[in-house]
Design goal:
Chain lengths: 571, 429
């Protein structure tokens, strides 16, 4: 009997010894449901794969992929990418009504990448990377080129490990016009280890997900420390999907939400490859706000976005969560109304002015903290065809001039690169700060307009990044068992937390030439030039002569015959 | 004659000051007919602001002035540049009239004119008020007033060209070369004024324009040396001012390759907005050659009349340059009173003046309809541009015709007869 046991363990040892040391990888998934005060509901999925390997190591090519998707791993090693963040968003996050999201993203597509120091041609790598990602995600990221790429100097510091802050290796681009649809969701789901077959990903049905006020799917890849002393590093891949279901369009006006109503599916099992699979429901405002069933004894607390929130935790790796029906469905029924905590930082942007010649971009930033002032970093990337005049830049807070302490401005070069304006502005407490800058609209060549030129041209969202004072002490100590949604942004100090707010994208009309006219214009202009040429040619090459009338035809013929005969001519 | 000139200057300054203080100044400095990407004051302020921020003004595509313009005090002189131009034009036309009268006297004494063209000769009485009229035409021209109120650097360019004309007519080759180099440095097109200036000096020094004579080459090389030398020195100074050669592609590359298609009163913008990409380079070359290529033929035809050649060249530059403004038009229009004796030979003057007046009135209307009201489109503004340039071409060629015709009459007689004794008509054959 023990002989057999020994044989089994011996075999196991041999097997372990003979297999090459596979890098350890780990997969976690979670879903956070946060009821919003307007009756809408916010669901945030996060899928994290941690992998102990080194893509950027010279010589050693990584070839054994298990949980980490191979397509992304190959992209990372081929283009020497240190950090990659890509998001596809449909809709605009309404901060004043919904609070701060866990992972902010601007409307359209956004891509920002930190390359490794060893890259010699960053622009070439960037161009190839955007094309490869465009293929992986079925999105038109190939529209990203040098005319809409910027290198922010301060706004997009690495979120993972990285001491190098040379912004020559950073590229940021956004496509506000990009539309997100099922075609983008499907390849995104394919990157997950369990696909959409098991675990939380079964809830992602496109009909329901895209029938929402806000839908954002993102992929974030970065190197992180595995422990407190950072003795070993690992690659972290986070796939996040944030969706806000509207009370009236998805909820039919009834303030009652369930997993089935939101996603038209219920959960049946956790992903077998996941080491943890949990569902969190934000019950901080309970029991006055809503009633939650099935009840669960598991409670968790997390400090996220400067606030201590309480969550009901449902652990899907335990069989009893699914109950007798082998399916898990949450039910939230609203009981009352309450006020939402006002978000401390909020920004808006709009275009002022009339006509197609000039305009003004106004960015309004609100600091809703009652007594603390804090600085924010505002980054604006404006396309080259809106010529900004930086001498008209004014920053006013509480109707007084507020001079930014740091301005980094890179003017645009026509058809080569866009404007980049980064400013560090100190926001006074409980105030509204307005940043205005004038611009002129350019007339483009007729081939540079989109097929629907009167729709207008999009200007990407402004990014407002700030360390907002926190009401609750943030946790800076590194623990692996924090829920995923609270460990996305590294926390450096206890008294503040990092917030990034995206403003609305702008839609600006440009003057258009008449597109049916190229041939006519060429003819008419060349006619005028030819009239000038002709007049000058006549006056330069001809001389004045007295106009002698020419004899009639009969006389000329007669003269011709007389000449031949040798007889004197007629006069 | 100083008193009427002073009075004129005071009136001109008053008008400009009044407009400057009113709310119209803001409106005028935004008008595309008056300012262009090359000479807008807004862009100069932007360039200075960029310099304050520590960024080179040429790193973006906003500032297209030459580096020396960044010197502040040069810009204070924009407001006085109109006065300088007017006084320079006054003095140069005065000198020119004296020259013309002297030559006419010698020709009369040597009996070179046919008997019946005495009525074509000019009298001092008629020529007395011409310099004042020239100054008036420049100062009180609405185009000039608009250009000055908008603080366009075109005024500065006009002043340099006017000073160049004055120095040439006074006979100072050194100053003339330096000023021409300054004008070329600011916008390349005054390069074509080298030929008339050279012809004037050769005429003045009684050096015949014969390519085989060494005296001709000697003087030409001297003048060319002064001109090219000053150009090199000025360009070198700009390099040292900002420490880089960035300004060359930003200014001269910009003038030649026309990347900015902001509407103006010229022919280039809509043409290149609607151009097929394949032919763009070809047509850029054609249009730019078009400006320079009338120089040699005109110099050959008008080698005895260099001042009229200067007028023709300035007119051709104003019409065919890549970013014209009304300030450029005003400069050659100031010369028109100097040729008032040609009035009887002008054929289309009524048509031309109506066309130019109508177009000047329609420019703001159609711009408003396109850009603000949205009820017209770019074709309307383009049509008026075409008509305006057509009117200008007609004006210039009409004066050219009249000038050549008068010269013909002065050599062949005014009342010409055909072989059978009846009155003849003159045609160009």
């Amino acid at each position: 009997c023990w002989g057999k046991q020994n044989l089994k363990s011996l075999l196991k040892l041999i097997v372990i010894a003979l297999t090459p040391a596979a890098a350890r990888d780990e997969f976690q998934e979670e879903l956070v449901i946060r009821p919003l005060h307007s009756g809408d509901i916010y669901a945030s999925f996060q899928f994290r794969t941690l992998w102990d390997t080194d893509f950027l190591q010279e010589g050693q090519k990584v070839s054994h992929y298990r949980l980490f998707p191979k397509s992304l791993g190959q992209v990372l090693s081929k283009f020497s990418v240190r950090e990659l963040h890509i998001s596809f968003t449909q809709g605009f996050w309404r901060t004043m009504q919904w609070g701060q999201p866990f992972i902010p993203s601007p409307p359209g597509a956004e891509l920002w990448v930190w390359f490794h120091d060893t890259v010699s041609d960053v622009d070439g790598n960037w161009k190839e990377l955007t094309n490869v990602l465009s293929g992986i995600f079925c999105a038109s990221l190939n529209f990203i080129d040098l005319t809409n790429t910027v290198q922010p100097s301060a706004s997009f510091k690495p979120l993972g490990l990285g001491n190098a802050t040379d912004h020559r290796f950073l590229r940021y681009a956004t496509l506000p016009r990009e539309i997100v649809c099922t075609e983008n969701l499907t390849p995104w789901k394919k990157l997950l280890p369990c696909g959409s077959k098991a675990g939380l990903a079964v809830l992602m049905k496109s009909e329901k997900l895209f029938h929402s006020s806000f839908h954002s799917q993102a992929v974030h890849i970065r190197p992180i420390c595995q422990d407190e002393q950072c003795s070993s590093k690992a690659w972290e891949l986070r796939q996040t999907l944030n969706v806000v279901f509207d009370l009236h369009t998805s909820g039919q006006g009834k303030k009652e939400w369930s997993l089935f109503k939101m996603f038209s599916r219920t959960l049946t099992e956790a992903c077998p490859l996941a080491s943890s699979s949990k569902v969190y429901v934000d019950i901080t405002d309970n029991p006055e706000l809503f009633e939650l069933s099935p009840a669960t004894p598991l409670l968790g607390q997390a400090v996220v976005l400067g606030d201590r929130r309480t969550y009901s935790v449902y652990d899907l790796s335990r069989a009893e969560t699914f109950g007798q029906l082998r399916s898990f469905n949450l039910l939230l029924r609203w009981k009352g109304d309450s006020d939402m905590l006002r978000p401390l930082l909020h920004a808006e942007r709009y275009v002022a002015g009339f006509g197609l010649q000039t305009g003004e971009i106004h960015t309004v930033i609100y600091n809703n903290h009652p007594y603390r002032a804090f600085p924010v970093l505002l980054m604006d990337s404006v396309p080259w065809y809106l010529q900004l005049y930086i001498h008209t830049l004014t920053v006013t807070s509480k109707s007084r001039d507020n001079k930014p302490s740091y301005i980094h401005y890179q003017p645009a070069k026509d058809r080569h690169r866009p404007h980049l304006l980064e400013m560090l502005i100190q926001l006074p407490p409980h105030s509204m700060t307005e940043v205005t800058v004038q611009f002129e609209r350019a007339l483009l060549k007729w081939t540079e307009y989109t097929p629907d030129p009167n729709h207008g041209f999009y200007v990407g969202s402004s990014v407002v990044s700030a360390l907002v004072p926190s009401m609750v002490a943030m946790r800076t100590n590194f623990t692996q068992d924090q829920p995923l949604f609270s460990s996305f942004v590294p926390v450096k100090e206890e008294s503040s937390y990092f917030v990034r707010v995206y403003t609305e994208p702008l839609l600006v009309n440009l003057p258009t030439p008449d597109f049916s006219m190229p041939y006519n214009v060429i003819c008419l202009t060349c006619t005028v030039v030819a009239v000038g040429y002709g007049s000058f040619y006549n006056l330069l090459t001809r001389t004045f002569q007295v106009d002698e009338p020419s004899p009639p035809l009969s006389k000329r013929l007669a003269n011709l015959i007389r000449r031949m005969r040798g007889v004197p001519l007629l006069t | 004659m100083a008193a009427p000139l002073t009075l004129l200057l005071i009136v001109a300054v008053t008008i400009r000051a009044v407009l400057f203080r009113s709310s119209w100044a803001e409106l005028i400095s935004e008008r595309v007919e008056v300012v262009s990407p090359l000479n807008a004051w807004k862009r100069v302020v932007e360039g200075l602001a960029l310099l304050d921020l520590g960024v080179s003004p040429y790193s973006g595509d906003v500032f297209h002035e030459v580096s020396l313009s960044l010197i502040h005090f040069l810009f204070k002189s924009i407001l006085g540049s109109d006065g300088i131009t007017a006084v320079a034009l006054y003095l140069s036309i005065q000198t020119y009239n004296k020259n013309v009268f002297r030559k006419q006297k010698y020709a009369l004494e040597s009996d070179r004119y046919p008997a019946d063209c005495l009525e074509l000769l000019r009298s001092p009485k008629e020529m007395f008020y011409i310099p004042l009229k020239v100054a008036m035409f420049y100062l009180l021209n609405p185009f000039t007033i608009l250009s000055c109120v908008a603080k366009s650097t075109c005024g500065l360019n006009n002043a340099i060209i006017a000073l160049f004309i004055l120095c040439t007519l006074k006979g100072s080759a050194l100053l003339s070369g330096i000023l021409l180099a300054l004008a070329t440095y600011q916008s390349i097109y005054p390069l074509t004024l080298f030929a008339p200036a050279l012809l004037f000096f050769l005429q003045r020094l009684y050096i015949p324009v014969n390519l085989r004579r060494s005296s001709f080459w000697f003087f030409t090389l001297q003048y060319a040396f002064i001109y090219v030398g000053s150009l090199v020195v000025i360009t070198g100074l700009s390099f040292f001012l900002l420490g880089s050669w960035d300004f060359i592609p930003s200014v001269y590359g910009f003038i030649f390759s026309v990347p900015d298609l902001t509407p103006n009163i010229g022919l280039f913008w809509y043409f290149f907005a609607e151009m097929f990409e394949h032919f763009r380079l070809f047509f850029i070359c054609v249009f730019q050659i078009n400006v320079f290529f009338y120089t040699i033929p005109l110099s050959i035809k008008l080698k005895e009349h260099p001042v009229f050649l200067i007028f023709m060249q300035i007119a051709i530059i104003s019409i065919f340059k890549s970013y014209p403004t009304v300030g450029d038009v005003a400069l050659y229009m100031a010369f028109l009173p100097a040729w008032s004796h040609l009035y009887r030979f002008l054929r289309n003057i009524f048509l031309v003046s109506c066309v130019l007046l109508a177009c000047s009135a329609l420019f703001p209307v159609l711009w408003h309809l396109w850009i603000y009201a949205g009820s017209a489109n770019s074709n309307f503004y383009y049509a008026i541009t075409l008509l305006f340039n057509f009117g200008q071409i007609l004006l210039v060629s009409d004066y050219f015709y009249a000038y050549l015709r008068r010269e013909h009459h002065l050599t062949h007689g005014l009342y010409l007869k055909k072989k059978d004794g009846t009155e003849a008509t003159l045609v160009l054959k």
